[in-house]
Amino acid sequence: MKDIRPIRGKYYIHSLIAEGEHEHQDFKFAITDAAKIAHSISAFANNDGGRLLVGVKDNGNIAGVRSEEDIYVIEQAASMYCQPPQEVKVTAFRVDNGAVVLRAEIDKATRRPVYSKESDGTWRAYYRVKDENIVAHPVMVKAWKHVAESEEGLVFSLSDTESALLDYLDEWGMTTVEDYMTGAHISRVIAEDVIMKLYAIGIIDFIYTGTEFKIVRAE
Prior knowledge:
The chain is an alpha+beta fold. The protein has 7 helices and 12 strands. Helix 2 packs across helix 3 and helix 6 crosses helix 7. The chain is elongated, with a radius of gyration of 20 Å. The mean pLDDT is 92.
């Protein structure tokens, strides 16, 4: 690794690996595709931040990075494949048998959504759920944009339609956009507008069930 100077961190890196992959940590065996790395950067930035451990296999075994080129690809992903561009702090650690592991830290974005450029040229916003990068729900993206574009805060009184959603969640725990539309007898446009506003001010939240996003009361 001629262009970076690794610091000693065997026990530190092993302690991170022992945590496994989770909402704020992802293992990468190698960095070969800036677009794929941008998915992780977008997902962490749109959540509460996180880190990539590069040179670590999915099972936690340390392979080490093979070239300083990995750093350039990470930087390329953050600057050219993320919109807006994100800052990633990369630190190299020397661990077992001279192997080097990179820790790439991504902060929570100050302005969401953070989009990732796809191989076909389109842009998508991702969100970190457990150990997966999930395409963010469209209403979440709208809410993030609503917050980012609002200069005077988000203050409004609850309408009957909005109160009805909260009453339903209090009784049943969760719902989907489609079920809310049907139950409240409202259009998708109105349903998404209500959900967007309530999510933006922190009254409701989204959870991922493994197959879809559902709406719940915020904790």
